[in-house]
Amino acid sequence: MLNLSRSNSTTDSIAGLKAIHKVYRPKDDVMTIFDTAPILETRQPRRSRTRRRDEVELEGLMNVVALRQVAEKVRELLITAEIDTKWRATQHFIADGCAKGQKPESFIGVEDIASGIVAMRVRSVNSPLTADEIAALDAEGIPYEKAVEQEETYAINPRYLGDKKLLAKMDAALRRIPGLPEDVFVKQPGKVRCVVDQEALENVFKLPPERALPLARLMSSIAITPTVDERAFPIYLKRVQKMLAPPPPKVVPLPEKKPVKLKARAGKKLGSTRVTRRDGKLRRK
After folding, report:
1. Taking CA atoms, which of 35, 70, 270, 280 is between 20 and 30 Å from 110?
2. What is the reported pLDDT for 12?
3. 182 or 57: which leads in pLDDT
4. Is 220 helix (H, G, I), strand (E, B) or coil?
5. How many whole angstroms separate alpha carbon 7 and alpha carbon 3?
């Protein structure tokens, strides 16, 4: 009985210590109301329901939708056609310019009833050369122009602009004033961008055609100015409709079927008669 009571007392003491430890923890392991706060369930975002709209008959809407779809397709065809045509014009300019040793003159391109002025224009000064393009020109010895984008100059440090006394001393004697800060003037570095001009393009056509072609493409652009004739609009429209039409389906020829020979039945002779298939039926020849 004595040992049993001691055992119960020990158990109660351990339970009490656990309860005290649960309430009074060290500072590093204190349970706060933030630790025991219930976890808030995250709500799933509601899917936006598409509002059902009323259908109203709107005259002219079909024209807008149709023209937009056709215009987008025509724009894609125009980009492809211009790339192809300008490439042919570039090849003509290279052959003509390298043969003459100078920049070729513009010409009037013609095809069927269409015509237009085609010219090779020097790259704009607003499009400076990249490092790789400069290296390509240097490798062939083609000169280019260095346009000053920002002049190199000196300016008063903005931090001293509000110091009227200092500005007055500077006005009296600029550099001889004792105690004048050394950084009162700041340097604004100059910026130079490399661009091409007519002279640089002229030098390109003194090279062989295979070496002049890549340089001419990076130093110039092809401009096509078509001659517009309103009377030919129906012809142009017919040409575009033909371009917009889907390609005809490819006709795949059916494989030739080999003749089928029938085996002779019991009591019947077929001899050398051949049987071929026509329209899914067996016929004798």
Report:
1. 70
2. 56
3. 57
4. strand
5. 6
